[in-house]
Write the structure tokens for this entry.
Amino acid sequence: QDTTGLLPNQDSQLSAVSDDARHVLHPWADLSSLGTHESLIISEAKGVHVVDGNGKTYIDSIGGMWCVTLGFGREELVEAIADQARRMAYYTPFGDVSSEPAAKLAAMLSERSPGDLNRVQFATGGSTAAESAVRIAHYYQKSQGRPDKIHILSRRNAYHGGTYLAASLSGKLADRTLFHYETDIVHHMKSPGFDPDISDVSAEAFLADLIDDMERTIAEVGADRIACFIAEPIMASGGVLVPPPGYQKATLDLCRKHDILYISDEVVTGFGRLGHFFASETRFDIVPDMIVTAKGLTSGYQPLGAVLISDRIAAAMSEAAPKDKPVFSNGFTYSGHPVACAAAIANIEIMEREDICGHVRKVGPYFIDKLKALRSSPIVYAVRGDHLMACVECTVGMETGPTARNMALAQRVDRYCEEAGLLVRPYENLCILSPPLIVTERHIDSIVAILGASIERAGKDLRAGEI
Ligand code: PMP
């Protein structure tokens, strides 16, 4: 097995664990163990491997968090970041001030995006990019003399981020706890996840029902009140939910019919995870009005997000901007941060030189095929995914979904994976996998072998009444 050959410092590991427990509130933390939970501290990383503070090496099949696409420790990315930080670390992107990396990256993204999506507004990550896209939709609709078009269509199980509006767009309603959400203008339609391995209806019938639901929602809310529809081409964090064939195209057609802008959230599906720079056009035959991107945009080496906007919308907004107040008041201090843009430029150059998308088109089907063999286990309810995004859904046998026992079972699988040197992402009763795009068939064999053995161990625990 590959190892990084890196050994972390034990003292700094110990203080990291206690400082973390005492002072950090993690995203999506278990609040009941605040202050007592000992986090896994990842200290070093190389290629597809990460090393914890005790020097234990794991294969990272989470890709950081869907984002470390080129793998860890890429000198060329590190150099690009350092060079730009030395030359000019930061200057304001507001108004009419720009930087070379931001301008160059915007041109590179436009060249690689579908249709006339040639205008880029940078953000700081996926949530701020998704929110920006909605704000652009609002501005556009109002600028066209349609002030009531402010409602937003989303889907149950969607994930669009953690800021206030992005969290409200997200459709995992079971996750909603004591926060407050925007409910007046956000409408969640049916979740589009279709699994041909377990569904008892045909893909065509399932699709017809989804489109019916969307038509009904549009009629209920009123097309003249809906600004936009936001959708991941394949849902990621909601549990790797793959829509039936034709869904993306059919939903775009409905949006066109009703003058609803289509926002494709490619934060996960973009930058190679499905074997293309952007999946919208090449995989799903749609040219949306906006694409939201982040994560793999920099291979996770720097935080950055972007909204790609069609020329049509940008020109319409520009023409209609109030003459006495033409300011477009959206954006952030770190929109298009020069160091992050330098990382993204180097990332795109490496992706193309190494034909990372071609590599994913080759190893992606191998990954899914290998994983599907795990369905023979009685504790595996479903294995689904596409190229390098996948998940395994666990079941104790007689119940499906995130019940307490199913979740306990999946957590046991996760724990056994971790013990055996594989990190998978635990979520409800799912083990989610999104490895760096540079994984080889050999790495995939190791991932599936460890996951399979962990499933077997957890299955034995279940039969022994220990779960
Ligand atoms: N959209 C999608 C599809 C995502 O998966 C995520 C993050 N998992 C986001 C938006 C939010 O991105 P960020 O966490 O960078 O704000």
User: Anything to note?
Assistant: The pocket of 4'-deoxy-4'-aminopyridoxal-5'-phosphate is lined by residues 125-127, 130, 159-161, 232, 236-237, 265, 267-268, 294 (CB under 6 Å). DSSP finds 14 helices and 15 strands in the chain.
